[in-house]
Amino acid sequence: MDSNENHARRFFVAGRVQGVGYRYFVQELAQELGLRGYVRNLRDGRVEVLAIGSPETLRLARQALQKGPMMSRVAEVIEQPATLDNRYDSDFTVEMTI
User: With respect to CATH, is domain 7-83 assigned 3.40.50.12780?
Assistant: First the structure.
């Protein structure tokens, strides 16, 4: 497997992750790592992240998601495989709550 090949993962982050700048933390993280995808709040209080990148950048992203920004308190990060979505070929966005 090529280590530069893009993979997609969906992360569901639970805890105190809404109203504490978590989505903007994730957006900055994605820019630093060169990830594509999105972050959004879910109505159940979790944050959903679709991250597209190399296996190594996805590993680094998961570590950072577990830590979160200073005001957050992450209780759990659930990681699931996801399919590549060409709508996010070149960007990482903060999306509306669903």
Answer: no
Domain boundaries, the chain: 7-83
Q: Would you state the pLDDT for residue 3?
A: 59
Q: Catalytic residue among 9, 36, 41, 46, which?
A: 41
23 in catalytic set: yes
- CB 48 within 8 Å of CB 39: yes
Q: Sheet containing 47-53: give its strands across.
A: 73-82, 7-16, 47-53, 36-41, 92-94
9 is annotated as an active-site residue: no
Mean pLDDT of 8-32: 97
- The pLDDT of residue 1 is 44
